[in-house]
User: What shape does this take?
Amino acid sequence: MKDKELLTLAIESSCDETSVALVAGGRRVLSNIIASQIDVHKAFGGVVPEIASRHHLENINRVTDHALSDAGVTMDDVDFFSVTMGPGLVGALLIGVATAKAYSLATGKPLVGVHHIQGHISANYIEHPDLKPPFMALVVSGGHTSIVRVDDYNSCVSLGQTRDDAVGEAFDKVARVIGLGYPGGPLIDKLAKEGRPDAIPFKRVFLDDGSLDFSFSGIKTGVMNYVNSEKQAGRQVNTADVAASFQEAVLDVIVEKSVQAAIDNNEDKLVVAGGVAANSRLREKLKEACDEKGIGLMIPSPILCTDNAAMIGAAGYYKYMAGEEAGLDLDAYAQMAF
Ligand code: KG4
Ligand code: ZN
Assistant: This one.
């Protein structure tokens, strides 16, 4: 295996998932262990950074052992280490980065730092073996909403991004307003199936002059105002209708802009990445729009949409092949340009 397919041990710890994966040749996943802390943070209605860091520290070695044994390999088989260096919660990222540096130092094997969003996009290389740049990518996560033109494995241009909240953040905030738990995205996805998407005409915010930027803070306020005015009028709020109408308004904009970006840039492939790509209605709407325009649509299965280390291994592979090694001075960054 070694000569043909380089093996990376990849680590992801940017938010509330401690994940370690073994990935061969950038695309073949031997193991992908994800220890989620959702249950811990649920009680607080969101991720508490200090608690996330502490849990990463408690979990990381155990998750690594599990990933190695699941893959049926040992540290001796690993060729290099890949780790998320940002963006994310800096204390959480530091646990992954420090662990990867320790493994690299102890084994004398190289280290690669990976941009988290590059990782999300690269999840598509795992499930679509023939996928190669160039393509258009829609990145929709808890921290990012961007339309990215991917020119090569390590080269991309952001064509538009959110000017305020990320789309996943809007899902989570609206879920809180209508009394759902955390994380709100999957709960809204589920509840929306019981509601009418045209029940409440929430505003679609397209912004001016054909911009590919997004804005989601207005719709969050729109939902809050709607819920408050219904309560004040003594009417019971139909939360399923709110969930379905909110979701539809947000997704209408995302779908239209990403498909338009592919057409305007003569890209015949649209690749979707990030936690919100797990949304069942987004998947349906994108499929319909892409089929109509003759654009090939690629979305990873839900487990590879949300945070995981396999995607970091895929991105790390292409960075390593391009000679982009990191030193032991590799740091973690809360913010990182993309
Ligand atoms: O990519 P991700 O796991 O973490 C970040 O890098 O941010 O994305 C997490 C976000 C959360 O906001 C979560 O509510 C949202 O993805 N999400 C969803 C769904 N599954 C996860 N949003 C809508 N529908 C879903 N099915
Ligand atoms: Zn993510």
Q: What stands out?
A: The longest helix spans residues 239-264.
